[in-house]
Structures
1.
Amino acid sequence: MHELGVVFHVIDEIEELAEANNVEHVNSVTLQIGTVTGIIPDYLIDCWNWAVSKHENMTECKLIIEKIEAITHCENCGENYNTIIYGKKCPHCQSDNTYLIQGNEFMIKEMEVI
Amino acid sequence: MKDIRIIEVKQSVFASNDKRAAELRNELKEKKIFLLNVMSSPGSGKTTTLTGIINELKDEFRIGVMEADIDSDVDARTVSKLTGVEAIQLHTGGMCHLDADMTRQGIESLEDKDNYDLIILENVGNLVCPAEFDTGAVRNMCILSVPEGDDKPLKYPLMFEVSNFVLINKLDVIDYFDFDLNKCKENIKYRNPNADIFEICAKTGMGIKEVSDYIRNLIYDWRK
């Protein structure tokens, strides 16, 4: 259910950008989504396909999703590691003193328009 | 055939909401209104907890309440009946959270919108989505109840990262559940070392005064 709300937000922003750029029709939108955002791409695409059909200038607009891997940095030992596998605890030194450096992005990268 | 163009956007999806939330917070600061966003799972005791807090604070502050739910006006009626303060119901129309614009619309529809000291927003019961959207609130409060389990901060990290303080509710039934209070606090601190934690039981009133005193201080700090 969260995905639908998110899709509405994306479409609102695309509509604003379309108006500002004199766009007639939006053919595709590319999103960059981190792997720890909690967004499920398959659900997002289902919601997207339903929602764009309600917008005249976005009919059949394709949603392209680029994944961004989640990486955490350890302040204690300076290593970077895969967040999905190891979570908050550094696998190199077992420290909790870590922070996410990428993976929670949710960006509109670009849109293809006519 | 028309030319196809690529427009580079490179913009965070939450950017416009974040901006609107910051604008709302600035306006509230000017009006000296403290907006408290309350989040939790369904059934954690939000409405009962808020009723207790409001009754502690209502003689000192002018309070308005916004109850957000997908449907019904059960909560607004309950709060209003038990505290006497103005409570309105916001319907999210199926959405699982409130964003800054919806919060602003809610504030606009409060009868005495410019004259409150404290506006409480009871967000939709859900540990996932409300955490993603800044409502424009000054502080986020999260309620976690004993029957939900001490592991919830591990399972719903963002909620506990964005919450400035957490109330652990329903302590009266702790003996009937496998709930490790210290472990729970550790899990909250693991996600958010700065979170303040309170142990309460909204039903018996335990801890409500401490939380109310804490909120009172936050309100005075915000007005400075």
2.
Amino acid sequence: MRRLGGLALLGMAVLGILVGVALAVFFGQDNRMDTGPHRLQTGTAAIVTAPQAIAIAGPRVELEVAAVEPDRNLFVGVGHDVDVRDLLGQTPRTRIDSVELPWRIETSGVDGSGVPRSAPEDADWWIEQDQGRGRATVAWDLPDTAIDVVILDRDGREDLAVDVTATWEAPGAFVTGIALAVFGLGVGIFGWAVITTRVAPRGLHARRGPEAGTGRA
Amino acid sequence: MRSRLIAGVTCLALVSSACGIPYRKDTDDLTKVAASDSQARRIIAEFNLTRQEADTLLDGSLLPDIESGSLLDIDQGAYFVAARVAGHTAAARLRLEPPDEVLSPRFAGYPMWFVAVSRDAGGDTQRVVVFERQDSVSPWLMTMAPEISGDTELPAMELDRGDAVVTAPPDSARGVAMSGSEALSNYAAALTGEDAPENDLFVDDDFLRRTREFQRSQRSLPFADFTQSWSAEPASLAMRVAGGGLLVFGTLERADAYSVHPSSYIDWGSNADAKAYLPGRALSAARLDYRHQVLLFVPPRGEGEAQLIGQYGGVVDGSGS
């Protein structure tokens, strides 16, 4: 029984160390895990994710978008799919249908002959938005609702090409990872001690006490 | 062992909170709740700012920035009367407290609307206001504002899995005695007179009683024939009540027509609406058009009569000769 308890502790310890080290290594001291830059191109002036493309919620992410032609007037926004669809209407665009990390995307063209209902920055429902000459960055918590990411050339110039870097921000991930690994190490040492010495978890003592006493008598 | 378990759970919780553990979400649900409580609060605060300026100046040209539909007609009419007839300024004013309740449905696209129940800061009544947005870049405009007494509570609404209010198609009579559209047209018919059979469909309310009283007084005028007609605009907004029933918003159109007898005239006396829209005497005919916004409760089928919950209306036009 003591050996079983010790092995369980060792198992927990290995798991804790692995998860902790993975957290610390992947996120690093800046608590960020990123992928990119990745090139996105369209024959239109707009690139938009489909709501199915962002199928996860929870983490805080940052999207850094840099135009290949630095004089492009870029707009990057994150909004609810209902709002984005209405804003863009019949605007021709390239839709990102799926995203698989570290980076594999599927796209399709959406034909149309319109323009957005208004300048995108005039809408009041963006979860996050940014605009700039040749570069724009947004950071937001992925919500539990259908969202689209919109990358637009605000001047409507076609053949937009951008380099995108996506980052998962996790404040405290590095420290938490180290702490988890150290905690796992401690549990591991204790587990090893349970197996190799007479040290036993309190639960095991309580169950084995009377048997041990009987044996000695 | 238990303390170790707690430590483990705590550790996992720390990791989760630190990293924002990702989880799969339902990507098939492409609907949006029209407005959160905080958004509704902000929209009403913005409404108050413009409305206060308009109220101060009695400037109806400011109202299209914040109101639409029959509510805009009614409030512009109220300004028109207040600017021309002394003592009617207060009736045209409205300032809403932050909402006590926000009822927000979910939509797959625009237009969208939501309902808020707010106290009128200038009185002891509440307004059940509806804000509508036609598209993603248009402003939220108030389109309905029936008044209810200060102590009236709306019935609890049926909510979906995400706590959004469940709407009903205006022509759907599923589970209720009549659809929203039918309720409005029946109530309009009941208002035409106490002999109308539709009176049996509704609880006798103060608005019905006051309307009949007014009809009787005007029909007894010795110098003019009076007719009053009512009709309902198509219902557009209906919400399902928890346990069955509907809350229906709608607008009723009312026309008061006077045909003056030969050699007679009408002097409008204390009728402020007529004094504003029909200055001077009416020598042959006069007509005043009103809009009344109503909030009706339609009970589940077989559970009694429908009932007026609230009403707000006023004169919107007039002509005479």
